[in-house]
Amino acid sequence: MKQLVLNRRQFLKATAITGIAASFSGSLKGLMQGEAAGAPAKTAATKIIRTCCRGCIGKCGILAHVKDGRLIKLEGDPDQPMTRGKVCAKGLAGIQALYNPNRNKYPMVRVGARGENKWKRVSWEEAIDTIAGKLMEIREKYGAEQVLCTTGGGGNPEFGSVRRFASVFGTPNWFEPGAQQCYMPRTVCYNMIYGNTDMKYQTTSIADSEGHEIYFYDDTPMKTLVIWGSCPANNSPSQGGRAVVELRARGVQTVVVDPRFTADAAKADVWLPIRPGTDVALELCWIRYIIEHKLYDEEFVMKWSNLPFLVNTQTKMCLRESDIMPGGDSNTYVVLDRKTQSAKPLPYPWDDSLDPELFGTFMVNGVECKTGFQLYKERCEPFTLEKAAEICWLDAVMIEKAIKIYAQGPGGLCLGVATDQHPQSAQAAMAACALDLMMGYVQKPGALLQNFGDVKFGDSAVSPLYKLLPAEQFRKRLGGAEYKGANSWGSCHNPTVLQAIKTGEPYPLRAWLERSGNKLAVLGNASSWIEALEKMEFIVHMYMYPTSFSAYADVLLPVQEWLESDYVVPPLNMLFVRQAVTHTYETMNETVIWAKIAKRCGELGHQACKDSFDPAKTAPEQPYWNSMEEFLDYNCKLKLGMTFKELAEKVPYEAMPIDKWRKYYTYKEIDPKTGKPKGFGRPSKKVEIYGEAFITLARTGAPYAPYPLPPASKDYDPLPYFVEPHESPLEGSELAQKFPLVMTNGRLPYFHHGTLRNVPWLREIYPVPEIWIHPKAAAKYGVSQGDWVNVESQRGKIKAKAWVTEGINPGVVYMERFWTPETLNTDTHGWKEVNVNVLSKNDAPFNDVIGTYTLRGYLVKVSKADGPPKGVWLKPEEFKKWLPEPSDPTPLKDKEV
Ligand SMILES: Nc1nc2c(c(=O)[nH]1)N[C@H]1C(S)=C(S)[C@@H](COP(=O)(O)OP(=O)(O)OC[C@H]3O[C@@H](n4cnc5c(=O)[nH]c(N)nc54)[C@H](O)[C@@H]3O)O[C@H]1N2
Ligand SMILES: Nc1nc2c(c(=O)[nH]1)N[C@H]1C(S)=C(S)[C@@H](COP(=O)(O)OP(=O)(O)OC[C@H]3O[C@@H](n4cnc5c(=O)[nH]c(N)nc54)[C@H](O)[C@@H]3O)O[C@H]1N2
Ligand code: SF4
Ligand SMILES: [Mo]
């Protein structure tokens, strides 16, 4: 078999400009496609397989060229409606990831000491047997909760399978390092406030393939887009980033709130280089301004939100008819009628005879009440333009300009992951959702926040099986009672897990099954996990390559790359498939690995595991399966009445006609059962901008906990509030004298989390992490362009290469997560040299609702270093060792082994 015929030089020419260029379309079309990769001319023997990339959390359509069983070229699929033929550098590099010489090829068990990197090849059967045997031993001796399961967040197509395994096995303790730090704060808050019409999650996150209105750039009336703590040009270059470029080309004005001058900031009408961790202060300022200048959508707010409802200022709960009249209805809310100056029940959806006050404080039966909007107004009162400018290190004139652009909608506020990564995560999401709703930017043409159709193939096509956990096991979830928002996803709180491992309180954890990349690159305060890893009795790592985490494992399992795996992919109203284009070595789909472990536990006497393979016993939940084919066929037959293979043959498959899928104002549709509008998926059927439900959540766990929980240590606040970051750079802070700069992070277009650091093409473009630093700060700390610097926080010290630029707030520095596979077999195991998560913070304060810790907005200092870290590769030729190796193609066979 011949070596891959790929021309690296031409590839570089195409991808070195990624980030900005990758999000363009039209004239750059050829460049971003496979032809730039210098692929050989097509011969009759070349087969083109239509698949979808999973190099990040995007869904980009791919045409894979396969010759004699060997993948030789990737290019974009022009029919995929969200990406229209575009692919980014990571996607094109999939070929080097697939054929990387460092792949995990066979199951292996450790034979040397931990970290010694001595392994013995074993059969799959032996590996599964060892794992199941150990898990059953722990379960019987100590309890299932002492087994910890973890997974990857973005980029993990089968997120649900870990949750499924954990619940079937009986442990409430599973997590992924995003979650509380990614997307969960937004999904929970948008769900509790907006609720959507059908209670399905809906946010405005372009990175997470939401905000679907942007893909209709040819006919959307959208006028403005605020990109807040997000950068589509980096987070989804060929998908959302591409669509944003198209919108701007058609005159949509953009505002970018980001400490850095990113590709999207560079093209914005207003760029607000905010101080990390102060977003809520700026949001409260925007709300204050919108209230003060009456820029809100009065009609929508009055008729479709709970802002006119009266709230008892003592209990903070909305008044019900039953509170003001005996025998009154407890589901009918109360307003203050302007005409009669009295409290009146407001029947759903509206009563034309009433004229409710939007603002004001009133006494009702001797009880002080305010409207929801009045409470919001009071909360925002201190946050004038000048005050916000002072807190956020911004210019008041620019803030005002930004708000005025936002108010010229329709449009919306795309909130990214930045605000999910500091302890004000939930508050930032509450305020962002409130802003769009106050402006009425919801479900109307041109709005980002929508309720378009559901093609029933979300990324985790798996039902919420965690509810199967018996109440007793559910209540053992670490952190579950305090940070109750996390029960919406069913995951535990990783800092609480860490404490439990270290202290044995309330119980120790003994086994860790991990199925993603490099946890030491992505978890906050990475060093704090080493003691925990060393304490574990048994660790399994399932991944495509060995990473720093593998160094601590007892069993390594080889998993498939996306080019070897099958899945259903839902872009807009269409269904596409990811399908195996080849198969290498003994790699297996992880979904099947979990199933095999469950099956073996069943054979060893675990009744729930055994039952999970029996459809009769698990109905109506989906049963476990023996192979990917069985699993996908089960889903496809259930939802589409055809097998996965039949679907693959029909791609591009229109799951719903576009006009039925792209529907607006679904809240106004009449519900045939009631004869009234469907409204929103909240108890009041209105958007609940005054977040009464957060109080109930704190007290009981409703609506997410399947069984009632004891109250959290304090009620969650129904409104967003601002607190200064715990590690504050402001004058008077003792810490800031030692660590004067604020650290933050953000995506690089060349890598996905901890992945692809072993891909020569990408490391050639970006070999080591840069730290962005303003020229003034650089001068102050004696740093010049290209210098190696030390970066230090209270928690540790790393190195980075200085990128001196005016494109960053002068008090802020920026880096992205990084690790170096080339030093895997040294004492550092590759995670200590240049990894920003050595510096980040994973202890209190946590977000009250969700449990978020601090990945952005903590303090560091920078000084000139004596040179690069030892052993880290810097020159292009060094990466040659990782170029694809010639190998016989393993025949494409049944995906299970
Ligand atoms: N300091 C700092 N830390 C952070 C962040 C930050 O911005 N700053 N970001 C946080 C966020 S938002 C997140 S989501 C986490 C990410 O943390 P993790 O998700 O744990 O990171 P990875 O494992 O590197 O990435 C997810 C994995 O999914 C893998 N994947 C692709 N295909 C498959 C497959 O078929 N099966 C499986 N199982 N996996 C597959 C990818 O290869 C990738 O390794 O990191 C968090 N950590
Ligand atoms: N290339 C690539 N794409 C990815 C991923 C990846 O790892 N690589 N990960 C995927 C995942 S799981 C996620 S969650 C998404 C995330 O996608 P995004 O939401 O776009 O996340 P980031 O790029 O991490 O952060 C967005 C921006 O926030 C800015 N920022 C930093 N601190 C602050 C702050 O305090 N306030 C504000 N307002 N802005 C701040 C950063 O400079 C950055 O440009 O990307 C997804 N797509
Ligand atoms: S944005 Fe790039 S890595 Fe992500 S799915 Fe698309 S092509 Fe793949
Ligand atoms: Mo994420």
Textual characterization of the structure:
This protein has about 900 residues and is α/β, with parallel strands linked by helices. Among the domains are: about 110-180 and about 470-565 and about 585-640, Rossmann fold (3-Layer(aba) Sandwich); about 190-295 and about 385-440, Dimethylsulfoxide Reductase, domain 2, CATH 3.40.228; about 735-840 and about 855-880, Barwin-like endoglucanases (Beta Barrel). Helix content is about 25%, strand content about 15%. It contains 31 helices and 30 strands. A seven-stranded mixed sheet has the order 5-4-19-18-17-6-7, covered by helices on one side. Strands 26-28-27-30-25-29 form a six-stranded mixed sheet. β2 (about 60-65) and β3 form a beta hairpin. α11 (about 280-290) crosses α14 (about 370-380) and α15 packs across α16 (about 395-405). It is globular, with a radius of gyration of 27 Å. The model is unreliable at about 1-40 and about 890-895 (pLDDT under 50). It binds ligand MGD (2 copies), iron/sulfur cluster (SF4) and molybdenum atom. One ligand MGD binds near residues 262 and 814.
How would you summarize the topology of this molecule?
Layout: H1 8-15, H2 29-32, E1 46-52, E2 61-67, E3 70-76, H3 89-92, H4 94-98, E4 108-110, E5 119-121, H5 124-141, E6 147-151, H6 160-169, E7 174-175, H7 184-193, E8 224-228, H8 232-235, H9 240-249, E9 253-257, H10 263-266, E10 270-272, H11 279-292, H12 298-304, E11 310-312, H13 321-324, E12 333-337, E13 342-346, E14 361-364, E15 367-371, H14 372-380, H15 385-392, H16 396-407, E16 411-415, H17 425-438, H18 471-474, H19 494-503, E17 511-515, H20 519-522, H21 530-535, E18 538-543, E19 555-558, E20 567-569, E21 574-578, H22 590-603, H23 607-611, H24 615-618, H25 628-640, H26 644-650, E22 653-654, H27 658-661, E23 670-671, E24 676-677, H28 692-700, H29 734-738, E25 741-744, H30 760-765, E26 770-773, H31 775-780, E27 788-793, E28 796-804, E29 812-814, E30 858-864
Parallel strand pairs: 6-7, 6-17, 8-9, 8-16, 9-10, 17-18, 18-19, 25-29, 26-28
Antiparallel strand pairs: 1-2, 2-3, 4-5, 4-19, 11-15, 12-13, 14-15, 20-21, 21-22, 23-24, 25-30, 27-28, 27-30
Helix pairs in contact: 5-22, 6-22, 7-17, 11-14, 11-15, 11-16, 11-17, 15-16
The structure holds ligand MGD (2 copies), iron/sulfur cluster and molybdenum atom.
